Amino acid sequence: MKLLTTLLATTVMIAPMASEARERNGSVYMETGHYASLPTASPSEVLGSSGPVDRFTQGFKSLTPDFTSEKDPNDPSGLYFTPHASTLGYGLDVGMRSKYLGVRGSYNKGKADLDFAAEGGEFNMSGNMESYGAMVELYPTGGNFRLSGGLRMNDLSYDLSGTLPDGYSRGGTSFIGSGDTQVAGTIRYTDPAKVATIGYHGEITPNIFLSADIGAMFLTGLDVDLSSSGGASSDPRFQQELDDIEDTISKFKIYPIAKIGLTIKF
Q1: What is the mean pLDDT of the chain?
Q2: φ, ψ for residue 9 (rounded to 5)?
Q3: What are the angstrom distances between the C-alpha of 21 and each of 17, 128, 150, 156?
Q4: Of residues 71, 74, 70, 77, the one with CA closest to residue 96
Q5: Which of 43, 63, 75, 223 sits at 20 to 30 Å (Cα–Cα) from 164?
Q6: Is the Cα torsion angle 202, 208, 213, 218 positive or negative in sign?
């Protein structure tokens, strides 16, 4: 009972003091005639700068890609396409590179039609070319100069036809028959081949480049089949001559590559 009486007396004493303070526009007017600002705090100040809300927000931002930022125009990395023309025909390269390394796939298809003179005769070689492959690229300076190496699958098929004049001679041996000698045959290559090239991209715009490559495809040997008719074809020595020519052509090991194209980078 005595405790309850004491609490009631204390409340009666405090109540008049509280009524003397009036709130005005977020401040409290004290009996002394001065205003005292009420303290305010943001949620982050209440929770602390490293509170759970801030930690969640910072973690979410670190995992979310920044789609508003622009790609550095000087950054060479990315996906690219290169439509091109080459000694392997028309084709398309699709590649991906970082600053120093890259990979690309390539497809080519074309036709060949070549007239040439040899051994005193006139010849024509025509056929189809189709190949595809993959290459690894090294950009030693991190720029547009590159060294490339890889492997190509090939289907190269050519038809050869020509005429050797009567009295054709080779290596000191003359082949005389009753008129000109007709020569025909096929040259094919269907095996995989190693490829090595060097190239450069010359910038036209930040995303478009003029691309050029030179190099070689290293063959393992051509499949050659030649035959003859008329003229000296009945001479056994001439048949041996055709066999020697087949061996010479089949030993052709290096196919030159020259390519120019337009590279579009993404």
Answers
A1: 79
A2: -65, -40
A3: 7, 101, 87, 101
A4: 77
A5: 223
A6: positive
**CB neighbourhood size of 220 (10 A):** 10
Q: Give me the torsion for CA of 54, 60, 66, 67, rounded to 10°.
A: -120
Q: Which fold has domain 78-265?
A: Porin (2.40.160)
Q: Which helix (H) or strand (E) holds 9?
A: helix 2-19
Residue 223 contacts residue 55 (beta carbons within 8 Å): no
Give the integer Cα–Cα distance in Å for 233 and 48.
101
Identify the band that residue 120 occupies on the pLDDT scale cut at 50, 70 and 90.
confident
**pLDDT > 90 fraction of the chain, expressed in percent and rounded:** 44
Q: Which helix (H) or strand (E) holds 16?
A: helix 2-19
**Torsion sign across C-alpha atoms 234, 236, 241, 243:** positive
**Residue range(s) in the chain whose domain bears CATH number 2.40.160.170:** 78-265
Spell 177-212 as b/e; 16+ CB within 10 A means b: beebbbbebebbbeeebebebebebeeeeeeebebb
Dig out the tokens for 171 from the structure. Answer: 């290596």
Token pair for 261? 């194209």
- With CA atoms as reference, report the closest residue to 245 among 153, 175, 155: 175
Residue 2 φ/ψ, nearest 5 degrees: -65, -35
